């Protein structure tokens, strides 16, 4: 009996141990299942961007073609200065010493130019060749030619040279009016005598003017870019990505004399107009509207009771001018020049510079809140 009871107790104990083992095993399995690492997430979905040729800036074609038409311009000028100079007689200098006076000598300067026709016409800046006694141009392939001066236009800082050659590489002239803000352009020239240097930038602004410190008459509507331009780039090419000439690099704004982020070019449309006159007649026939202008501001607008918020205000008319003969007067606000809206004097000067003396243009203006239109005959400036 005791043996049977012991056997029963042993059986119960074994069953309990087995049950605990099964329970612990289930908990282990469940624990392993719950803490198992999750599957790796699917790869992030990215947009499939296809970059097509022509959708990003590529300057290779424009640079390699236009650079052949940009020349290095070397000028020799006659200058002088007052000071103490020795004579040609050493004995005289020994006894009397150097004498104070004016002595002339030759100096050299340099810049850039652009061949605009295969027969040797070259555009540069007036300030590059001003007062030059001798002008020499060097092509990108190192051919050298002595150049003659066809004519200059200080008002736009443009000069035209001619070399006796044919079959020269030239750059086609593009439409500078079609340039858009942010459009890529390249500048080609010889800064610091580093010939055929190419830099790139974007069109930062159009229709810019510069401070007129010397009071000379100027026609300015510059293309502003951030392409690096330095001394020696003057007269070089501003080219679009199609390899077309859209401007002549002219100046920079700088406190140091070197590039500080802003460069300016004369638009090709103005250049073409000047070159045409210089080739035909050796001088520029510039039309005049016969007014002095000022920028409209809010105070003047309210004082004159003008409804338009932009335009070119006539400060005075010149006696005998086309404007005076047409009835325009002080205080009139010009709104349109032959159908094209004008917002500032610079824009009006550009439109005017594209015309010739003797042409008749329609001027839309506002006077005391009333808009009228008159025809004005342009006279030669």
In a nutshell, what does this entry contain?
The chain is an alpha+beta fold and 381 residues long. The protein has helices at residues 2-35, 60-66, 90-96, 126-129, 268-281, 298-303, 322-325, 345-353; strands at residues 70-85, 99-115, 121-125, 132-138, 144-153, 158-163, 184-189, 197-208, 222-225, 237-240, 245-252, 263-267, 287-288, 291-295, 312-317, 333-337, 340-341, 360-367, 370-377, 379-380. Among the domains are: 176-281, Trypsin-like serine proteases (Thrombin, subunit H); 287-380, PDZ domain (Pdz3 Domain, Roll).
What does this structure look like?
By secondary structure, this protein is an alpha+beta fold. Among the domains are: 176-281, Trypsin-like serine proteases (Thrombin, subunit H); 287-380, Roll (Pdz3 Domain), CATH 2.30.42. The chain contains 8 helices and 20 strands. The chain has helices at 2-35, 60-66, 90-96, 126-129, 268-281, 298-303, 322-325, 345-353; strands spanning 70-85, 99-115, 121-125, 132-138, 144-153, 158-163, 184-189, 197-208, 222-225, 237-240, 245-252, 263-267, 287-288, 291-295, 312-317, 333-337, 340-341, 360-367, 370-377, 379-380. The strands form 4 sheets. Strands 1-2-3-6-5-4 form a 6-stranded antiparallel β-barrel. A 6-stranded antiparallel barrel has the order 7-8-9-12-11-10. Strands 14, 15, 16, 17, 18 and 19 form a 6-stranded antiparallel beta sheet that branches. β2 (99-115) and β3 form a beta hairpin. The protein is globular. Mean pLDDT is 83; it is low at 12-37 and 39-47.
